[in-house]
Amino acid sequence: MKVLKFGGTSVGKPERMQSVSQLITADNDQKIVVLSALSGTTNSLVEISQSLSEGKKEQAKQQIDKLESHYRTFCEELVKQEAGRAKAKAIVDEHFEFLNIILKISFNEALNKDILAQGELLSTRLFCVYLEEAGIPAVLLPALDFMSIDEYEEPEIPKIKIKLANLISQHKGQHVFITQGYICRNARGEVDNLKRGGSDYSASLIGAAIQAAEVQIWTDIDGMHNNDPRVVDKTFPIEQLSFDEAAELAYFGAKILHPASIWPAQHFNIPVKLLNTMQPEAKGTIITELPNGNGVKAIAAKDGIIAIKIKSSRMLLAYGFLRKIFEIFEKYRTPIDMITTSEVAVSVTIDNQQYLDQILKELQPFGTVELDYHQTIVSIVGNEVAATPSIITKLFDAIEEIPLRMISYGGSRHNISILINGQFKEKTLQVLNKGLFGL
């Protein structure tokens, strides 16, 4: 059995959704198809939720009406027969009736999660209506019936495995199963989600749960590129990556893949393919256990980084100092991306400022705390890059005119990361593309 995930742009237009139906019926293999919300829907739902949280109900109503109009037009183009259109209309009626009802309800975080779930629920139900009209047998497996996270927001793979197996066993002989990405239930049984980009994560978790032959991530680009094609003119898709290389790239900014989506596949050694819905014949990128040779594979950039420097000549060399610093970040569940130390200071970076005020307050007793906002981490990733002197020489020759804030080297043999002010991001990616790839 395979898992095929299609992102928002892959299902964002009626003709794209119709193309997806052709891709999932190209062979007779059993498969679970994971769909994101139609492109733009989640952003619209976030805006609706934001308006409601601020008490702007008239604005929220306008946003709901605009989104509803888009879906009604979408359905008119997606299905042509009267029976199919009636079913599609009923689905849209149901979901937008819910969105209109919440205008009369007090806003809270649980309601916010319900609002954000509507996109995936709509896309999968409408896709099933289209498949039925096209005469393609398929079964809808509601993600809320099997996908769950624990009290720490970690996926419960053993439970997912059992529930999913039970659901599939009820439909013997079926080859195509449709489900939602992104959404799940939390430890309280409420509707929740796997955060933005979570449909990739859903696909990888499902792949792990069913021990899939492979997980395919279908997007609008032909695989993982060696650099950011939105910033750099000359880029190319990478044919093969190891799980370690892909994980580094995803975590440090490669937008094609959700950072958390690698470890379930890696843990169960399930190949992941990154493919292009618009060019299904393209090779794309395959991610497997073993690397395909040494050298630089790709460059990724992660924006919105905050650098925190704690300077303390009195305490830095004291036993347990670093442990106490890290315990503060652990207390507020805030991951650290990079760390450097000197004789009198330690610098760390974070990408989540939700608890920044509390963290800074608890850091104050340890010394002087300085912040640098709007930083960018640029990572150079590839097998053994940190152990290859020629690569290190080319890297620092290329960025000789770029002011560096931090360097992370030696923590991984597959990654060298630098921290720069965000204003130098584009120039840095361009000079590295030339210096490391000759492009």
UniProtKB/TrEMBL annotation:
The keyword RNA-binding does not apply. Residues 378-434 form the Aspartokinase ACT domain. Pfam families: AA_kinase, ACT_9. InterPro entries: AceGlu_kinase-like_sf, ACT-like_dom_sf, ACT_Aspartokinase, Asp/Glu/Uridylate_kinase, Asp_kin_monofn, Asp_kinase, AsparK_Bifunc_asparK/hSer_DH, Aspartate_kinase_CS. The keyword Amino-acid biosynthesis applies. It is an enzyme of class 2 (transferase). It catalyses: L-aspartate + ATP = 4-phospho-L-aspartate + ADP. Pathway: Amino-acid biosynthesis; L-lysine biosynthesis via DAP pathway; (S)-tetrahydrodipicolinate from L-aspartate: step 1/4; Amino-acid biosynthesis; L-threonine biosynthesis; L-threonine from L-aspartate: step 1/5; Amino-acid biosynthesis; L-methionine biosynthesis via de novo pathway; L-homoserine from L-aspartate: step 1/3. Residues 2-276 form the Aspartate/glutamate/uridylate kinase domain. Its EC number is 2.7.2.4. GO terms for molecular function: aspartate kinase activity. Belongs to the aspartokinase family. PANTHER family: ASPARTATE KINASE (PTHR21499), ASPARTOKINASE (PTHR21499:SF59). This is Aspartokinase.
